[in-house]
Amino acid sequence: MPKKIRELKQILRKSGFTEIAGKGSHTNWTHPYYLGKLTVSGQDSADAKRYQEKEVSLAIQEVKQAIEQEEDHEIDEDEV
Description:
Layout: H1 5-14, E1 18-21, E2 26-31, E3 34-41, H2 50-79
Antiparallel strand pairs: 1-2, 2-3
């Protein structure tokens, strides 16, 4: 069963993304560790499309990897 658009938005908020209003039912999402922006379209009660779920998942993975790399870099600097 697909997630609802509101669920995708909630997942993005919990991951630290910030919502920027778009035109109509579109919302844009940014994060300091995510290059560019992620656009989610559709009414909150609508079922999310498979590609939307995948885009959200990939964006969150990218943010997590960037945070891990930064933490690893900070640890390396502390050792020097």
